[in-house]
Amino acid sequence: MDENFILRVTGLNKKFGDLEVLKDVSLTMKPGEVISIIGPSGTGKSTFLRCLNYLEKPTRGTITIDGVTVDSGHARHQDIYALRQKTAMVFQNYNLFKNKTAIQNIMVQKVPKEKAEQEALEILKMIGLLDKRDSYPAHLSGGQQQRIGIGRAMAVKPKVMLFDEPTSSLDPELVGEVLK
Q: Which DSSP category does 55 fall into?
């Protein structure tokens, strides 16, 4: 068995009442690998992503991310917290703080302010929005807001980034901007 993995899911199941949304899902992901989950609406893609960081509690199964394992049958609060520290999620909607500027939305709270600001500036440069550092979400396009959301996810330096249809709510002309 290959032990060079960053993410391993074994026998993941999720039920909502009698509806079984996920049934015995297993996968292994190596560092640097990109995995896309495709399928029609309502087939459990978002539920699967939400189970990976325990925004949804799986009915059964084991998730390991970067050495942290959580078995849904024995999930303790501290284990779930440790697992969440290894991930960042970018949602369909932007989830930005409306009262914060682009740079403030990216800055990590538990880091000294000067370091957090420097790292946020580097991320803004990477995502092509350095000139929008002091702009509030209301003054940014949908594509720019989504890029800020991606930048915020990058700032926490996750081992695994989860993207839940990050371009689905954008106009077609903005999709390429976010994918880049």
A: S
Res. 175: pLDDT tops 80:
no
> What is the model's pLDDT at position 1?
44
Length of the chain: 180
In this prediction, residue 14 has a pLDDT band, given cuts at 50, 70 and 90, of: very high
Helix (H) / strand (E) containing 115:
helix 113-126
Is 45's pLDDT higher than 70? yes
**Long-range contacts formed by 27-33: CB under 8 A, 24+ apart:** 28/2, 29/5, 29/160, 30/2, 30/4, 30/5, 30/6, 31/4, 31/5, 31/6, 33/6
DSSP 89: E
Q: Are 141 and 174 in contact (CB under 8 A)?
A: yes
The Cα–Cα gap between 82 and 99 comes to 29
